[in-house]
From TrEMBL:
Main location per the UniProt record: cytoplasm
Subcellular location, record wording: Cytoplasm
UniProt keywords, alphabetically: Coiled coil, Cytoplasm, GTP-binding, Magnesium, Metal-binding, Nucleotide-binding
Taxonomic lineage of the native organism: Bacteria, Bacillati, Actinomycetota, Actinomycetes, Propionibacteriales
Coiled coil spans: 268-295
Superkingdom classification of source: Bacteria
Listed name of the protein: GTPase HflX
Gly residues: bias regions: 247-259
Pfam families with a match to the protein in the record: GTP-bdg_M, GTP-bdg_N, MMR_HSR1
Organism: Nocardioides fonticola
Domain named Hflx-type G: residues: 302-467
Length: 523
């Protein structure tokens, strides 16, 4: 079944008949001889006049220059985009459910239970951005004021009938609800609306599945999807209630537990087996990540974690601070895989900066659990740069949502610096309000570079400093220790003598232990 226009080979060939027509070519050709003399040479006279010609390539960057990793990833992501009104629909209801290779047309539904009407509208606006990021076209958005969602249909029987009319009139094929629906609510809505129904959790999981690139990120997303899917298995009619048993096990064969097992039980058991395997794989990946962290701890390298709401500009800030070259896109959850870069302070001390996955209101608990090992980068940091979108309609709500996730992953007693980003787009009154609420903050624009120098000074002042004093005489053959002191310690003074370098300063306990053998007596 297809909605594409009829194709005729004869009509297509007829449309190309005049392509080789000499008259058509002659009419469309550019007169290249207009400025040539009789002898065919170009007129070399220069009257000093400006013909207004400007090369289109005058100020363009060289396309042959090596692009950053982020630029290549962004180009790869944009190589395949779904286009509205161009669709190839394949429908087969004999199996589980139909698949449509097209830009989905969706209607958004929300239930307003608390807060102001502005909060409800902001939540639906964010849901619309999530839907567009997932690859859909938003046709309509409605919300209902209720004390609590209806336990059967989420929005109540009367509202379901009105929603069915909207779906029919707009031609929508998907309804997205701004909340996590119970399996019974999903089933009841689909039975009455006759279209696919998706909740907020499934929508976010779909975006994560599209954007995960690393092996660990893909495993984490798959684990979250399977955990979510396990309680929501459904099919056409009684398809999943069929029983399998004996030698005629309906294709189950070896691996079925015995007579009487239904298909839904078999599927759920296979999902549990896959979840167990993913947990084992993630534990092995966690060992590698922990080994890298322990190496940084052993060398006592301070770490800074960039965290915040999705699309607040975390990756742009990382690029500004470290020239990391990671992918930057104006989209929700554009980057999922954490990135760590090494950089130095103005006085030469080494520290690391890590970009983490973005947060969102009502972040699915399946994702929090699956990405716990990645989010531990925040819990283990010496300083958290909490990035806030100053141009967002509700930046205070973003701060509260991120801090809720911080509490879930156990981020406690870690210094936090609020970085109010997008100063070039934000309302000055909003920035003033945020700074009054969050005194320990800095205003920057990662796009223009405004405020970055001030932010770097605050970061350097917040980093832990070595506390053990030392006064040593280092032989010239121990230049490695002098280098480590420059990178991981603080040197107050250094004097080169005939016997070696006399160095005074502060170092970490481990480094001070290595320097003890060269301590100056009586110092």
């Amino acid at each position: 079944m297809t909605n594409a226009p009829d194709f005729s080979l004869a009509a297509a060939l007829a449309a190309t008949d005049d392509w080789d027509d000499a008259d058509a070519l002659e009419e469309s050709a550019v007169d290249l001889d207009g400025d040539l003399g009789d002898d065919g040479d170009a007129d070399d006279t220069d009257d000093g006049s400006d013909d207004g010609f400007v090369s289109g390539y005058a100020d363009e960057p060289d396309p042959e220059e090596d692009p950053t990793v982020g630029a290549m990833e962004l180009a790869e992501r944009h190589q395949l985009r779904r286009v509205a009104q161009l669709r190839t629909e394949l429908e087969d209801i004999t199996e589980v459910e139909y698949r449509q290779l097209r830009l989905e047309r969706v209607v958004l539904v929300g239930v307003w239970t608390e807060g102001s009407i502005a909060d409800a509208e902001n939540s639906l606006a964010e849901l619309a951005l999530l839907a567009e990021t997932a690859g859909s076209e938003v046709l309509e958005a409605i919300y209902q004021r209720r004390q609590s969602p209806d336990p059967a249909t989420y929005i109540g029987r009367g509202k379901v009938e009105g929603l069915a009319e909207i779906v029919k009139v707009t031609g929508a094929d998907t309804v997205i609800c701004d909340g996590e629906l119970a399996p019974s609510q999903l089933r009841n809505l689909e039975d009455r609306l006759k279209v696919k129904v998706v909740d907020r959790t499934a929508l976010i999981l779909d975006i994560f599945a599209q954007h995960a690139k690393s092996r660990e990120g893909q495993a984490q997303v798959e684990l979250a999807q399977l955990t979510y899917m396990k309680q929501r298995l459904r099919g056409w009619g009684g398809n999943l209630s069929r029983q399998a048993g004996g030698r005629v096990a309906g294709g189950a064969g070896i691996g079925g537990r015995g007579p009487g097992e239904t298909k839904i039980e078999t599927d759920r058991r296979r999902i549990n087996t896959k979840i167990a395997k993913l947990n084992r794989d993630l534990k092995q990946m966690k060992v590698t990540r922990d080994a890298k962290r322990s190496e940084r701890r052993r060398n006592q390298i301070p770490s800074v974690a960039i965290a915040g709401y999705t699309n607040a500009g975390k990756s742009s800030l990382l690029n500004r601070l470290t020239s990391a070259g990671v992918l930057v896109e104006d989209a929700l959850f554009a980057t999922l895989d954490p990135t760590t870069r090494r950089t130095t302070t103005s006085d030469g001390r080494v520290y690391t900066v890590s970009d983490t996955v973005g947060f969102v209101r009502h972040l699915p608990h399946q994702l929090v659990e699956a990405f716990r090992s990645t989010l531990e980068e925040v819990a283990d940091a010496d300083l958290v740069l909490h990035v806030v979108d100053g141009s967002h309609p509700d930046p205070e709500g973003q701060i509260s949502a991120v801090r809720e996730v911080f509490a879930d992953i156990g981020v406690k007693d870690i210094p936090e610096l609020i970085v109010i980003n997008k100063a070039d787009l934000a309302d000055p009154l909003v920035i003033a309000r945020l700074r009054a609420r969050e005194p320990h903050s800095v205003v920057v624009s990662a796009r223009t570079g405004e405020g970055i120098a001030e932010a770097l000074k605050l970061v350097e002042s917040e980093l832990p400093r070595p506390t053990v004093p030392f006064h040593v005489l280092l032989p010239y053959e121990r230049g490695d220790l002098v280098n480590r002191l420059h990178q991981h310690g603080e040197i107050s003074s250094i004097e080169h003598t005939a016997d070696g370098s006399v160095v005074i300063g502060h170092a970490s306990e481990a480094l001070a232990g290595e320097l003890a053998a060269y301590a100056v007596s009586g110092a």
